[in-house]
Specification:
Length: about 220
């Protein structure tokens, strides 16, 4: 079983070696803010903020952006990319914020790395205002992308504690977190070019999507 220190070292090493190439282009983080309908002046917490790509988009919308991450390397990058964001190094299972601090929370591609998912979800709920909303993206274990990466290319390092689940499993985990599921979307980024060619239609059913985007409300 990986430790928190092992997960931190994995992310430090990954960002040191790959930098922003580890992530999708910055402009594709705007969709998560659109899902949440973030307005100027609202407080947003990006949990597992990495080098600050979503934070930069939130700042451009006038939001009061806060980022939390374990990786010192990622936070150093975030300070350069989103200098106006408030950043803190912490564990997702013990956030250093008061109850009801944020109108919005995002957790994009990081929940699957947390050692205690239930405690992290409880913390997200705690720091949200009443009626506050969260946007969480998680990977589908049945997707072609995951199967190629995991079984063929062996890309999933045990130290990263990365795991995936089925549509039904994620819905059960997130739906049992005291946050109400408002809707579930698919990650649009892998299909952006194909959808334009197909006139906006989706290639695959939701349950076979590469990743799921859950919109939840406290």
């Amino acid at each position: 079983m990986p430790t928190q220190a092992a997960v931190q070292r994995w992310f430090d090493r990954t960002y040191a070696e790959l930098g922003f190439a580890y992530l999708r282009p910055a402009e594709f983080y705007a969709v998560f803010l659109e899902y949440l309908n973030v307005h100027p002046g609202e407080r947003l917490l990006d949990l597992g903020c990495g080098p600050g790509l979503l934070l930069g988009e939130a700042l451009r919308r006038g939001a009061r952006a806060h980022g939390a991450d374990l990786s010192l390397t990622a936070l150093a990058m975030a300070r350069r990319h989103a200098p106006a964001a408030r950043l803190v190094r912490c564990n997702a299972e013990a956030l250093p914020f008061r109850e009801g601090s944020f109108q919005h929370a995002t957790c994009i591609g990081t929940l699957e790395h947390f050692l205690a998912t239930d405690r992290a979800l409880s913390e997200i709920r705690r720091v949200l205002t009443g009626g506050g909303r969260a946007c969480i993206m998680v990977p589908n274990v049945r997707s072609l992308r995951w199967r190629i990466d995991a079984d063929l290319l062996r890309r999933h390092d045990p130290d990263s504690h990365e795991r995936a689940a089925t549509f039904e499993e994620w819905r059960r985990v997130l739906g049992g977190s005291s946050l109400a599921i408002e809707r579930i979307e698919r990650d649009e980024w892998p299909w952006r070019r194909w959808r334009r060619l197909l006139g906006g239609r989706h290639l695959v059913p939701l349950r076979w999507a590469s990743q799921y985007v859950f919109l939840l409300r406290r």
